[in-house]
Amino acid sequence: MKWVSGDFVDLAHKHKATGIAFTANAVIMKKDDQYKLVMGAGAAKRIRDKFLGIDAKLAEEIVKNVNDYPEHTRQVKDYYLSYCDYDNLRIFAVQTKKHFKEAGDWDLTVQSLEQLANYIKHNPESKIILNCPLINNGGFGDRIDEVKQMVENIFKDTKILVSIL
Prior knowledge:
Layout lengths: L1 E4 L2 H7 L4 E6 L2 E5 L2 E4 L4 H9 L3 H9 L10 E3 L5 E6 L2 E7 L10 H17 L5 E4 L12 H12 L4 E5 L1
Parallel strand pairs: 1-9, 2-7, 2-8, 8-9
Antiparallel strand pairs: 3-4, 3-5, 6-7
Helix pairs in contact: 4-5
């Protein structure tokens, strides 16, 4: 695990990452007859704007195991970690919130990050970058040291870059 500073999308290219992980919520919205993961702020918005259509691709992956698709806007069950491939990158949605209007959820974040750490351990050839969870739009800006310690504990034995601005 290594801390890096800067925009995590730019850093992914600089470090030749095979995957980019970003913090996400569990709200799926139907727009233009297509289901999309709500990605309107922070790291999620950066990913949505850089990788056109990624919100729809991730929504499809997230709701695969949900029998009833949302009508308009719906918070789906916790998925913790979901991913899809986009060009030569694997894009990971790491659930840290249930709803985009809420603050991040510490326990949910831990579970989601543990799943990402497990993925990395089972795919040692992967090189993934993650934006630091919970601190910007997550509501834990006053607990940065605690968040960093939690991230370090989870990823201590993995090859991941974690970006902090």
